[in-house]
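Handout, page 2. Input:
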Amino acid sequence: MRVFTSLAQLKAAQGEVLGSSDWLTIDQDRINEFAHATGDHQWIHVDPGRAATGPFGRTIAHGYLTLSLIPGFGAQIYRVEGARMAVNYGLNKVRFVSPVPVGSRLRGVAELLEVGDVPDGAQLTFRMTIELDGGSRPACVAETVSRQYF
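Output:
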């Protein structure tokens, strides 16, 4: 866990890989719950019988489910102390590089790309690479933007 206690520490870490999260297994219950929450019940996600004969040989996680893991992975990797509030500001770029078959293990690797000044705080741009255990390519690479207010 990388802990930042000042804006100066954040700026000094620009360009650094901050670390990686624990591995997380993606099970069918998580996929089904995400489908229920979002209304995306496409068979490649929620129908194991049909998915077994489909292009991936089993169900796969939704791309947006994979993307939604970023806050949890980030919380395991770094923390900014002294901020009164943090908000998601958006995404600059997202790519779903590899499918995530049910039973896969994922982890996040965070790199702090940029720290910019905003009134009363900082805008942080990270590259979060979501690695697929045993995969030759990541599941997802996303450039996230958040704001920390002090």
